[in-house]
Amino acid sequence: MVLIEYRARVPRAGASMVPIGGWIRGRLGALVLLASTTGLLLPATARATWSIVAVDPHTREVGVAVASCVEAPAGNTLLPQVAGLAPGVGALAAQALYDSMERNEALMRLAGGAAPRDLIDGVLAGDPLAAMRQYGVVTLDLQVATYTGDATRAWSGDVRGTGVAVQGNLLHGPEVLDEALAAFEADPPAHPWTLADRLMAALEAGAAQGGDARCPAGQSALAAALRVARPTDPAHAPSIDLRIPSQPRGGADPVALLRTEFDRWRHVNPPDGSTRDPMPQTSPWLLVLVLGWLRAASRRKRSPSLAARAG
User: Fold this and answer.
1) Sign of the Cα pseudo-torsion (56, 65, 41, 219, in order)
2) In the chain, what are the helix, strand and coil shares in percent, each to the nearest 5?
3) Verdict on whether the full-model pTM lies above 0.90
4) Are the beta carbons of 233 and 87 closer than 8 angstroms?
5) pLDDT by residue (tens digit) across 92-149?
6) Cβ atoms of 146 and 135 closer than 8 Å
């Protein structure tokens, strides 16, 4: 049985809003928090995002799929950094009000062996904007922890399963996360069903429920990414690193574009471990014969027949 736990906009127990860095940082953080919650300020990086963070303890792969209604340039450069991969250890997503320094600290703690709950508590300790952050962290020993700050924009929340965390903010509703988790945990089809396949299916399921509430009709997001690392991958170069940059509003859905890119990648890298060329190979001798036949046919077409010459 899979345990699913909801944590919809629940502040971390015992969370302190006492800042690190003194009185000035604390007052600045309070002003930013007030402006955001009253609608006066919504940083581009706080816009709606949903992600699936998961691991495969059998292959020891770790990965994240993410989509967001974030426009360029943030959708091109920032969104893929929501995903943090520690090959052979685990993965995380740091979203809502994104802080690159805090995300990098979280990734360092993950790579260093910190438990997911301890990791989240550690990076948020003393953060004056903790209420605007959102995290999902999973490790290969199947520990899962999530955090949704009580100042993230509704609908926001997270769900957990075995070796998987799904989180989002500014979504159409909880069904985005419910369906994403259900798709990830669905029984595999007849062919091999890898972590990347599950993540892609989960992202599509969330998109089918509307995804990001701020995007125009017909678009579940503006940008999307899928990143999966094998245990021997360098942290900066995962085996799968597919990115769809920000699309124009009213344009193509990036989750559908990501599926196209993933299917192309899958054709060259089938799940059975073999490899294929992008196009089927043709024997060079057969190619020579075909070209020779075409040239001969072309010459016959241009030359008058013997009967015509005799006449």
Assistant:
1) negative
2) 35, 20, 45
3) no
4) yes
5) 999 999 899 999 999 999 999 999 999 999 999 989 999 999 999 999 999 999 999 9
6) yes
Q: What is the mean pLDDT of the chain?
A: 80
The H helix count followed by the E strand count for the chain is: 9, 10
For residue range 210-241, what is the model confidence (pLDDT) as tens digits?
Answer: 988 888 788 889 999 999 999 999 999 999 99
- What is the rounded CA–CA span in Å between residue 189 and residue 192? 7
CB 245 within 8 A of CB 75: yes
Exposure on the CB side of residue 122, measured as CA atoms within 13 A: 15
CA 280-256-77 angle, 5° bins:
100
> Alpha helices of the chain — where are they, by DSSP H?
23-37, 74-77, 100-111, 116-124, 175-185, 195-208, 254-268, 284-302, 306-310
Q: Are strands 144-148 and 157-161 parallel, antiparallel or unpaired?
A: unpaired
* Nearest-angstrom CA–CA distance, 155 and 248: 24
Residue pair 131/21 in contact (Cβ under 8 Å)? The answer is no
Contact 223, 79 (CB under 8 A): yes
Supply angle C-alpha 211, 213, 214, rounded to 5: 120
Positive or negative, the CA dihedral 245, 167, 179, 53 is positive
Instruction: For Cα atoms 191, 254, 171, give the angle at the middle one, nearest 5 degrees.
Output: 100
Q: Decide if pLDDT at 306 tops 70.
A: no
pLDDT tops 90 at residue 80: no
Identify whether the C-beta of residue 204 lies closer than 8 Å to the C-beta of residue 210. no
CA distance 17 to 32: 13
Whether the link from the prior residue into 155 is cis, omega within 30° of 0, is: yes
DSSP state of 46: G
